[in-house]
User: Fold this.
Amino acid sequence: MIRLQDVSKRYGDGAFAVEHLDLQVDEGELCVLVGPSGCGKTTTLKMINRLIEPTSGRILLNGEDVTTVDVVALRRRIGYVIQQGGLFPHERVADNVATVPKLLGWDRARIAARVDDMLRLVGLPPEDFGRRFPHELSGGQRQRVGVARALAADPPVLLMDEPFGAVDPLTRARLQQEFKDLQARLRKTVVFVTHDVDEAVLLGDRIALLRQGGVLEQYGTPAELLDRPASAFASDFLGADRGLRRLAVLRVSADQVRHPPVVQRSDAATEARAAAIAAGWTWAAVVDDERIAGWLPASDGAGSGPGPVAATMRPVAGRVQVGDSLRVAFSTLLEGTDGWVAVERDGRFVGVLTAEDLSVAARDGLDGAS
Assistant:
């Protein structure tokens, strides 16, 4: 757990970089610091590991005041990731990842095993990437190495300063999702700095919104900030489209789906269509071994004969998973042509959601968050 108690940092002229900041990040939680440029996000991050010393207040790491700890020992307990990974350009990837374990005096075998594990964890096979230098990597690969290095000594706390800000949008989106999945497994205590509201909403368990002068404007879950901005500043910063952003924090649930009639590939198409019509549907889902394989229109002259469903069924245009965001579900539906998306859980067909269903789910979810 990280606890900032009435923490301030003043410039030489007496102006505040951070002003009387009270903030708690619970164990295993990812807290995002977001706000305009110059609001003290990076200063706050650097005060946690004492790259910058606070002017006043206390910073506690698992109940221990960081100012009472040897600064070198403190930083070895805290992983730190910056833009482009901050790698040592003259060292190979494996040596970069091994930096802190070496400083801690680990033996060679333990270091080598840990480096391999960390590179695999971030999707960089050590046999392919361990001997490369940073300049031989793409921007996204350098960021992955930076994360691997930060995690190498298994620190309880991870500080990340706009780690994905210097890569292209496609790579950034992929890195964000990969890190979100990684954090779900590792449950590190993370403080993450960004200026991107969408990134904050996607990654944060809680978001700390700072305004100029390092004043904490609002602290809460993404849903709380998006649904109930605490001030005009918060509302303006989160944007006029925050209603759409809220879709990113609402999830597809199995309780929301509707259930079309189900037929098998080997069923006679004529009988399958008749069953769909009798159930009040204009189509039927084709399911094999609990997995959706396609769909069959209830009226299709070309397939009205005695042939099997497999001969005339159509492919599914869009699929989402239980737990995906409503934003993903809406996007998937709009990219398809069927007017619905199939919902799956662990590969098994759960049901379907139409545009109307998604609208109702969004409205109910936002009402529930109010």
